[in-house]
Amino acid sequence: MKFEAAILRAIAHLLQHIADSMIWFGSAVIDGAASVLRVSRSCMDRAREWDPRLWDRDHDPRSDTRERRP
Q1: How far is Cα 54 from Cα 63, in angstroms, rounded to an integer?
Q2: Fewer CB within 10 Å, N side or C side of the chain?
Q3: Full DSSP string of 17-33
Q4: Vertex 13: Cα angle to 28 and 9 (nearest 5)
Q5: What pLDDT, on the 0 to 100 scale, is given for residue 67?
Q6: What is d(CA 11, CA 17) in angstroms, rounded to the nearest whole number?
Q7: Backbone torsion region of residue 66, taken as left when φ is above 0, otherwise alpha when ψ lies between -120 and 50, otherwise beta
Q8: Which residues of 7-24 are buried (b: 16+ CB within 10 A; e: fewer)?
Q9: Does this model's pTM top 0.70?
Q10: How far apart, in whole angstroms, are the C-alpha atoms of residue 3 and residue 5?
Q11: Distance of CA 44 to the CA centre of its chain
Q12: Gap between the Cα atoms of 53 and 51, Å rounded
């Protein structure tokens, strides 16, 4: 009886450690994906600034010219 309980406790601890590492790995992946999406959004914003075809979407008066001058 004691031996079986010890084995079950060891299995439970092992499964808890596996679950903890899966949670840690998952949160690291999610944080990395959020960073990638943030950089992607920044790149799209920069591309929109320099692409005259996209200025019309916001009714930007600069859309009448082919290049943007700061």
Answers
A1: 8
A2: C
A3: HHHHHHHHHHHHHHHHH
A4: 165
A5: 56
A6: 10
A7: alpha
A8: eeeeeeeeeeeeeeeeee
A9: no
A10: 5
A11: 16
A12: 5
